[in-house]
Amino acid sequence: MPALTTELITQCLLCGTPGATLFQGLHDRLYSVEGEFGFARCAACGLVWQSPRPTMEDIPKCYPDDYEPHEGATQGAGPVRPAAGMRDALRGMILSEAFGYTQFKRQEWWAPVTGRVLGRVSTLQDRARYGRDELCPPFVDGGTLLDIGCGAGGYLSAMKALGWKVLGVDLSPQAARIARESYGVPVKVGTLETAGLSDRSMAVITMVHAIEHVPDPISHLRQCHRVLQAGGRLVLTTPNFAGLMSRLFADHWMALEPPRHLWLFTPDTLRTCVERAGFRIERMLTRPFLSQVNYEKSLLIRRQGHARGNLRPCDAGPIARGLHRLEQGLLPFWRWAGNELMLSAVKQEE
């Protein structure tokens, strides 16, 4: 594969401050895209961006045929199953009474009270939402959920089973074909900007590890604002530059992922981007989801310069598990310790 044409991005997207070099001389550590890349950071607001980075024309070359999107981050703890047995009955009551999933509504007099009471317990709430947290949003009857960067459609299939109308957008024709053939999920090939979606046509938009890939995140979020109906919800996840993993591994952190990750966010810079696009943030958190795997990849990068292949189980396993548990243990005391940022926001009218 030929080397990419790159360009320097000298000023911060958020405040216009010139960026200072953070990392340089980096290569693609997950695939075999040729080129040398770096990252800059704004001294004023802390936004991090890739510079030098691929030109707009060459960004598609960053995604080889064997590229695997972060679809696993949308899968949660397990598949959606029909209610069967006490556990699933309780799950259905919580989904119905706390999140409005009408297909689980029960007629017994005690069911609404039980669902509302159990829905106040955070651990039960999380289990009821299949470990997806904000990616299992409050239900909108008749509303459409749009997933940008949907991959092969596994997440959309799960949301469809919960009663949503669903639609995906993805750059990969192969992923779109799998989504249609395997899950019966409609997917438009391209980007949100080229998908031709009408104003105010979506109830929810989800972006799972997608915002860091777009050339202009504020412009992209404004497109999300345009497409969402009044009061519509945006849910996104992205690597957390302010978390434990980033601090421990610095330029060996796997989530830098040059040349594909064009932006890296802290809670403050992500908040600024989303609010500037016209949203009101309802909840923002970090979580250690998939962090053990990501610790292993970061260890590989530190030791051999790339993350292709696997560390020896006796070598990587205990270290990665220990770091994962440390991250989990820190969260009650340091809310931004998690390797993944998750944000839920609501559209505000102009």
Q: Quaternary arrangement of the chains shown?
A: single chain
Nearest-integer average pLDDT: 90
Beta fraction: 15-25%
Give the overall shape: globular
Task: Quote the distance from N terminus to C terminus.
Answer: 46 Å
The class by helix and strand makeup works out as: alpha/beta
**Share of helix among residues?**
25-40%
Rg, Cα atoms, Å: 20 Å
Total of helices: 10
Number of strands: 13
- Arrangement of strands in the largest sheet: 8-7-6-9-10-13-12
H/E element sequence: EEEEEHHHEHEHEEHEHEHEHHE
Low-confidence stretches: 71-78
User: What kind of sheet is the major sheet?
Assistant: 7 strands, mixed
Task: Explain this structure.
With 350 residues, the protein is α/β, with parallel strands linked by helices. It has a domain at 81-129. The protein is built from 10 helices and 13 strands. Strands 8-7-6-9-10-13-12 form a 7-stranded mixed sheet, sandwiched between helices. α1 (85-99) packs across α2 (111-118). It is globular, with a radius of gyration of 20 Å. The protein starts with 5 loop residues before the first strand and ends with a strand.
